[in-house]
């Protein structure tokens, strides 16, 4: 992986990026002003929040929505909370 | 596919991209990519999706990705697909691939229109996806031919004598249908399963397919970030963004609102239409309503639905 | 076994393309290149090549699709001229910046406007800073030979830059010449299989090409490109040497024609070099020490080698078949004068902008330029640094 400050001899030519999907290492959680909290008790596992999250931050494991939100990438847009049909997600101030 | 089943598909577009908070191009891309069953080569036109997803040295694409320029996403991917056919024919590779070109409405309706038309006419086995946010957002909300009438953009500003964009939007989906390609759909992300189904059909189509997907831009629409998906539903319920597909020439309606809502409901939630609610501009809203009704009736007729 | 054939320049290049057998060609017709892509289309239709021919709707898409095909991991070519090259402009830089070894014949023609279909070098000269290697050819034989060598040059791991193979519109593209064509197997072996290191159609190692590259790394990527252009010089010579073993035809950065003891010399590109040779011969017969430097490799510019070749000449005329509108002479003139400055050579350099829009230049006319050079030596005076040669008052 290319590191800040690398010289021209150290990096792949032509601007090629050889590590597909490495944006994951770039954290966007710091953009957030509000944070979604998912209440498993209320969740009906419809997966709408999973489908609508712009930052792929609602996680699902074996078909079950997790309350472990990917806060490294969640930008706090509130779409998940807005779309949840049973109000299982609450946006709280950071 | 049920969403919880869809959630078992592998992630192809990752977090860590730098689209704005609440940008609906994000879920549109994520869901479409998940509908692909093969490794893919993805192309993207210059624009928000491209600049946000591949800022050196990062890429949010788990598949091979190419950005060439603004107006040539379709031509570029058509070259990739031609290479694939050539290498396969010569027995130099075996694996199956999907080919996808993304473009914003600027890169699709306007500057990339010729390249798109050419690629579709030539019959490349590829899927072209336009995420239509109704303006050149990446360069700061300039009007495109997809911008709805009346919208305030930075090059069609609402001023003292001109009330925003003067023209109706271009119906690109119809134009793509007129290319007689096997699959064309105009869809919306508030129905994620429908979106994935259309994408899956597009991928499974032999030959070119075109998807036109409404993608809220909270920044350019002057709307609240959390309303991005909801607004795409309002667009469908007010019929400003009808959802339909054309499969081998057959038009089919994909969504019919239970009760058609007035366009005001769509306009009111977006700051870009604020000036239309000033006294003296009522006729513009009426005009938009009339145009929307006419268009909706036309779509119903094409789809063999009762008005 | 090679064979002697009579072909036009366009046909010769189409033959080279057939023998190279690229995986993809995406091209659009334009005079005077049209016959090349038509002939090649017939090869595709007759199954003589494995190429997928993408019948794009414009040159912009031709270059865009060629970039896509090359990035995908295939050997990809296109061909164009004049306005077609101009329409590709934006993507020329993307092809070189992305380090794609695309080879493209360019049949040199005047750029509009007013529209003109005949030969000059305004198309290629405008693209001289686009990061492409540029080879020039006096005749169809050289254009054919350049095309085959270009594949190896471009694809060399120390280079990975695209190459334009230039030839003069109509004069070379349409005139029938007798030339030697290599055997198909020899070309196949010479160019070899294209084996890219990183490419799109590799599901095991997906990559991203063409990212947004900002202040932190863009300059480093441009530096790599500049280094590769420099490294291309040795590669060009090495490949020419290998090619010579196959054909006995010798290529370098330029051809020095009777330059060793020359006092007056002309620098020219493409077909005019042939005319200039006739003029040199006539003058030599008349006892004038005339010579010619015919540039083959214009980008990378072989600065030191040209300086060395011209250092003892007393007066040099550069023939520029393009007007750069700098008011300071044509593009080749600027390059030549600057290398001579570096070595502090005691030489006068003048520029003749000639032949725009296909206006003919005759042997006697070139002789008259040599006469002007002799006059400069005699008087020590340069009356006209820049001459628009043959233009009517
Ligand atoms: C040839 C060319 N013209 C103009 C631009 C500047 N430009 C870059 S992105 C863009 C607008 C993109 O708009 P759109 O396609 O609608 O995508 P969005 O940014 O809205 O996602 C413009 C005008 C460019 N990059 N290239
Ligand atoms: S707040 Fe937005 S970014 Fe965060 S998890 Fe919810 S939808 Fe995703
Ligand atoms: S400006 Fe609009 S389209 Fe662009 S990233 Fe932001 S929200 Fe998305």
UniProtKB/TrEMBL annotation, chain A:
Occurrences of domain 4Fe-4S ferredoxin-type (ranges): 34-63, 65-94
Signal peptide coordinates: none
Keywords, ordered alphabetically: 4Fe-4S, Electron transport, Iron, Iron-sulfur, Metal-binding, Pyruvate, Repeat, Transport
Keyword match Iron-sulfur: yes
Cofactor(s) listed in the protein's UniProt record: [4Fe-4S] cluster
Protein name, as recorded: Pyruvate synthase subunit PorD
Subunit text: Heterotetramer of one alpha, one beta, one delta and one gamma chain.
Pfam families: Fer4_21 (PF14697)
Domain of life: Bacteria
MF (Gene Ontology): 4 iron, 4 sulfur cluster binding; metal ion binding; oxidoreductase activity, acting on the aldehyde or oxo group of donors, iron-sulfur protein as acceptor
Matching Gene3D superfamilies: 3.30.70.20
Automatic annotation (TrEMBL), chain B:
Keywords from the UniProt entry: Oxidoreductase, Pyruvate
Annotated coiled-coil segments of the chain: none
Domain Thiamine pyrophosphate enzyme TPP-binding: 46-213
Molecular function terms from GO: oxidoreductase activity; thiamine pyrophosphate binding
PANTHER family assigned: PYRUVATE SYNTHASE SUBUNIT PORB (PTHR42897)
Protein name from the UniProt record: Pyruvate ferredoxin oxidoreductase beta subunit
Native source organism of the sequence: Orenia metallireducens
Lineage: Bacteria, Bacillati, Bacillota, Clostridia, Halanaerobiales
Automatic annotation (TrEMBL), chain C:
Family annotation (InterPro entries): PFOR_II, Pyruvate:ferred/Flavod_OxRd, Pyrv_Fd/Flavodoxin_OxRdtase_N, THDP-binding, Transketo_C/PFOR_II
Superkingdom classification of source: Bacteria
Pfam family, one: POR_N
Residue stretches making up the Pyruvate flavodoxin/ferredoxin oxidoreductase pyrimidine binding domain: 16-239
UniProt domain Pyruvate:ferredoxin oxidoreductase core: residue ranges: 262-366
Gene3D superfamilies per UniProt: 3.40.50.920, 3.40.50.970
Keywords for this protein: Oxidoreductase, Pyruvate
Oxidoreductase keyword on record: yes
UniProt GO BP: carboxylic acid metabolic process; response to oxidative stress
Presence of keyword Membrane: no
One of the record's GO molecular function terms: oxidoreductase activity, acting on the aldehyde or oxo group of donors
Family recorded in the similarity comment: Belongs to the pyruvate:ferredoxin/flavodoxin oxidoreductase family.
Record's protein name: Pyruvate ferredoxin oxidoreductase alpha subunit
């Amino acid at each position: 992986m290319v590191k800040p400050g690398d010289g021209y001899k150290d990096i792949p030519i032509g601007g090629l990026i050889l590590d597909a999907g490495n944006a994951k290492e770039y954290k966007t959680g710091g953009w957030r002003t509000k944070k979604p909290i998912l209440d498993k008790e209320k969740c009906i596992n419809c997966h709408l929040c999973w489908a609508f999250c712009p930052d792929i931050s609602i996680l699902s494991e074996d078909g079950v929505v997790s309350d472990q939100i990917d806060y490294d990438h969640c930008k706090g847009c509130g779409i998940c909370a807005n779309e949840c049909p049973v109000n299982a997600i609450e946006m709280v101030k950071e | 596919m049920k969403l919880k089943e869809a959630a078992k598909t592998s992630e192809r577009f990752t977090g860590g991209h730098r689209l704005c908070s609440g940008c609906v191009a994000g879920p549109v891309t994520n869901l479409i990519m998940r509908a692909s069953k093969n490794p893919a080569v993805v192309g993207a036109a210059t624009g928000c999706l491209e600049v946000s997803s591949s800022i050196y040295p990062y890429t949010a694409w788990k598949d091979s990705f190419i950005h060439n320029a603004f107006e040539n996403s379709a031509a570029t991917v058509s070259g990739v697909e031609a290479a694939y056919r050539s290498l396969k024919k010569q027995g130099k590779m075996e694996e199956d691939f999907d080919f996808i070109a993304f473009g914003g409405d600027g890169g699709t309706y306007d500057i990339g229109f010729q390249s798109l038309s050419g690629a579709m006419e030539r019959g490349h086995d590829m899927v072209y996806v336009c995420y239509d946010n109704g303006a050149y957002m990446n360069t700061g909300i300039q009007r495109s031919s997809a911008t709805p009438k009346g919208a305030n953009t930075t090059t069609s500003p609402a001023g003292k004598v001109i009330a925003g964009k003067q023209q109706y939007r271009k119906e690109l989906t119809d134009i793509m249908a007129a290319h007689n390609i096997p699959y064309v759909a105009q869809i919306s992300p508030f129905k994620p399963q429908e979106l994935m189904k259309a994408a899956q059909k597009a991928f499974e189509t032999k030959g070119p397919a075109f998807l036109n997907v409404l993608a809220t831009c909270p920044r350019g629409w002057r709307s609240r970030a959390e309303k991005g998906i909801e607004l795409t539903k309002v667009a469908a319920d007010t019929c400003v963004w009808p959802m339909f597909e054309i499969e081998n020439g057959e038009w089919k309606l994909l969504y019919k609102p239970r009760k058609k809502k007035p366009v005001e409901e769509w306009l009111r939630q977006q700051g870009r239409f604020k000036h239309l609610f000033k006294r003296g501009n009522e006729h513009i809203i009426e005009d938009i309503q009339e145009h929307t009704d006419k268009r909706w009736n036309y779509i119903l007729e094409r789809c063999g639905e009762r008005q | 076994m090679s064979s002697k054939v009579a072909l036009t320049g366009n046909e010769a290049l189409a033959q080279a393309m057939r023998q190279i057998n690229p995986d993809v060609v995406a091209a659009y017709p334009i005079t005077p290149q049209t016959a090349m892509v038509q002939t090649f289309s017939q090869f595709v239709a007759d199954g003589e090549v494995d190429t997928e021919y993408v019948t794009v709707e414009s040159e912009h898409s031709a270059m865009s699709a060629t970039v896509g095909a090359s990035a995908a991991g295939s050997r990809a070519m296109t061909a164009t001229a004049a306005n077609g090259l101009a329409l590709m402009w934006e993507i020329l830089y993307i092809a070189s910046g992305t380090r794609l070894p695309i080879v493209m014949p360019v049949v040199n023609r005047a750029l509009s406007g007013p529209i003109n279909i005949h030969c000059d070098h305004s198309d290629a000269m405008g693209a001289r800073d686009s990061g492409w290697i540029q080879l020039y050819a006096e005749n169809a034989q050289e254009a054919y030979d350049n095309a085959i060598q270009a594949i190896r040059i471009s694809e060399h791991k120390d280079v990975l830059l695209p190459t334009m193979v230039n030839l003069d519109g109509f004069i070379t593209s349409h005139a029938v010449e007798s030339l030697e064509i290599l055997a198909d197997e020899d070309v196949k072996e010479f160019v070899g299989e294209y084996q890219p290191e990183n490419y799109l159609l590799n599901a095991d190692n997906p990559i991203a090409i063409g990212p947004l590259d900002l202040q932190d790394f863009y300059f480093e990527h441009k530096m790599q490109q500049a280094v590769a252009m420099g490294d291309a010089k040795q590669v060009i010579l090495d490949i020419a040497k290998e090619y010579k073993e196959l054909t006995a035809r010798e290529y370098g950065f330029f051809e020095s024609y009777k330059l060793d003891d020359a006092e007056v010399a002309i620098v020219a590109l493409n077909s005019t070099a042939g005319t200039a040779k006739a003029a040199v011969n006539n003058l030599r017969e008349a006892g004038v020490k005339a010579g010619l430097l015919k540039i083959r490799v214009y980008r990378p510019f072989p600065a030191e080698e040209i300086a060395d070749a011209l250092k003892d000449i007393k007066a040099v005329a550069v023939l520029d078949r393009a007007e750069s509108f700098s008011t300071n002479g044509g593009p080749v003139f600027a390059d030549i004068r600057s290398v001579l400055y570096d070595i502090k050579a005691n030489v006068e350099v003048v520029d003749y902008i000639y032949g725009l829009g296909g206006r003919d230049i005759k042997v006697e006319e070139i002789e008259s330029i040599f006469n002007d050079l002799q006059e400069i030596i005699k008087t020590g005076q340069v009356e006209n640094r820049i001459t628009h040669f043959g233009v009517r008052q």
